[in-house]
Amino acid sequence: MRLFIKELKLVSFKNHSSFSAKFCVGINCMSGPNGAGKTNVLDAIHYLVTGKSYFSFSDKQSIEYGKTMATIKGKFEYNHELDDVLVSLRTEKKKTIKVNGQLCKKLSELVGRYTCVLVTPSDISMVWGGSEERRNFMDRTICQSSKSYLHALNEYNKLLENRNRALKNMAGSQHFDPLLLSVYEKQMTGPALEIHGQRKAFFEELDELFQTIYRHISDDRDHIEIYYESELETKSIDQLFVENMERDRILERTTSGVHKDEMACNLADNHPLKKVGSQGQIKSFVISLKLASMQWLKNKTGKTPILMLDDVFEKLDDKRLNNVLAWIAANYSGQIFITDAFKDRLKDSVEGFDLEKKFFNIDL
Predict the structure, then answer these.
(1) Sequence-distant (≥ 6) Cβ neighbours of residue 105 within 8 angstroms
(2) Which pLDDT score, from 0 to 100, does residue 321 have?
(3) With left for phi above 0 and alpha for psi between -120 and 50, is residue 66 left, alpha or beta?
(4) 204-258, pLDDT tens digit by residue?
(5) Distant-in-sequence, close-in-space partners of 237: CB < 8 Å, separation ≥ 6
(6) 1-115+303-364, CATH topology level
(7) Which residues in 91-177 belong to E strands, given as ranges?
């Protein structure tokens, strides 16, 4: 299904007081010095697709310093029709999102309409960071394909917050009320099972895609295994609540459930990639995982995601980088954004792509 962003306009978004650009359907290359705002342009596109920043937890952090409001406007061509999307951020109010002038009352009205995959230097945190980073990868990907997953995730997180608040209040009042906790637990069961089921299916389908891409990028020099780890693989959510009740009471938080799920990534003989992987292996792993998620989204939704590669030249040696670009040129036909500090290097890197190309210079 044809999907690409044609125009982008920013006002007071991060370091862009004012920015506008018209993009081509093929490869859009943005060059300029570090700190000029190339990555922020990609984050603005991510906002228009998902309703959220890729980097900032709070929307307020995306508003230009000293300003009280920021706007992101985009024009998409979607299934041969034009869509206007507007995201408005305010320091004192919740953000608003409009599609073709109609207010989105829920984020689910936007999420999944378009799809994108963003590859950035910070993605290395999926290996070096905690399990939350890897769950974020699962959630960002699956949410773009499934409104039921997004709904279950939102419901579970709200109930988890309520249960944790109740545990803290009980500790403060020194009155433990297991009946109140059971009310939250019963409500959490359905969403937890939905989340677990979709995450498990995601990894079963993702693995083959990942292995194929990783072998290509690494010239088949090594093998990395990825698999999904969840307490719900061996126990029911009810069992987990019962078994961990005393621990939850002492720690004043919910210590088990799908919010503790993990993605394991190991080299041969079950050696954790985090501990024994080389820089080249880790960077190849991250990019392969992102490209695999792009293929998965395309297979799942029928839409070719917008692919955004931020400073990819800083991640890999020349051999692995050439393998990445060769794979994309051979297997991807959607809209691409690539950023780099050097325009000439960008031009050289995209010569092998039989796609329309457009170059932008982003200055400080």
Answers:
(1) none
(2) 87
(3) left
(4) 999 999 999 999 999 888 889 999 999 999 999 999 999 999 999 999 999 999 9
(5) 185, 188, 189, 192, 193, 257
(6) Rossmann fold (3.40.50)
(7) 96-99, 102-103, 116-119
Nearest 10 degrees: Cα torsion 317, 322, 324, 326:
-170
Average pLDDT over residues 144-150: 96
Q: How confident is the model at residue 202 (pLDDT cuts 50, 70, 90)?
A: very high
- Asked if the 127-295 domain carries CATH number 3.40.50.450, the reply is no
| Listed residue (360, 272, 283, 271) closest to 314, CA to CA | 283
Coil/strand/helix, residue 188: helix
**In this predicted structure, what is the pLDDT of residue 315?**
67
Diameter of the chain by CA atoms?
69
Tens digit of pLDDT for each residue in 342-352? Answer: 999 999 888 88
Query: Which residue intervals of the chain bear CATH 1.20.1050.90?
Result: 127-295
3-state secondary structure of 194: helix
116, pLDDT greater than 90: yes
Helix (H) or strand (E) holding 271: strand 271-272
Residue 40 near residue 47 (C-beta atoms within 8 A): no
